[in-house]
Amino acid sequence: MITPLLLICSNVFMTFAWYGHLKYGHAWPLWKAILVSWLIALVEYCFAVPANRFGFSLFSGFQLKIMQEAITLVVFMVFAMTFLKEKMAWNYIVSFLFLVGAVIFAFAFKSGEGTGG
To answer: Cα–Cα distance between 53 and 106 in angstroms, integer?
Structure first.
């Protein structure tokens, strides 16, 4: 359970690092947006690296990446609707459901390779 929680924290920071400046940072010079984003991303790495280290004893590298991408989408959906004030469209929902299906498919069957670590 620690891996998904760390990945959620990681993705919250990374989402703000990548997209947070879109709302308030238009007046900033590009170098400032990059610097602030990089500093936020540094905190993100403090969550992502342990998440993957701990998770690799339970999940394969493929499963970790698929889990991370699904978490990224959930975090971004909340971010886009609350922080950026964007509206959810039906095609985004359908796309997300396809990705949820991919996650289920990735975890539902044994790969035969075992897990890492």
So the answer is: 20
Measured from the Cβ of residue 48, the count of other Cβ atoms closer than 10 Å reads: 19
The Cα 62–Cα 56 span in angstroms is 10
DSSP classification of residue 66: H
Q: What is the pTM of this model?
A: 0.80
Q: Which helix (H) or strand (E) holds 112?
A: none
For tokens 């289920």, the residue is: 104
Per-residue pLDDT reduced to its tens digit, 58-90? 999 988 998 998 899 999 999 999 999 999 999
Contact 4, 71 (CB under 8 A): yes
Task: Yes or no: say if 40 and 16 are a contact pair by the CB < 8 Å rule.
Answer: yes
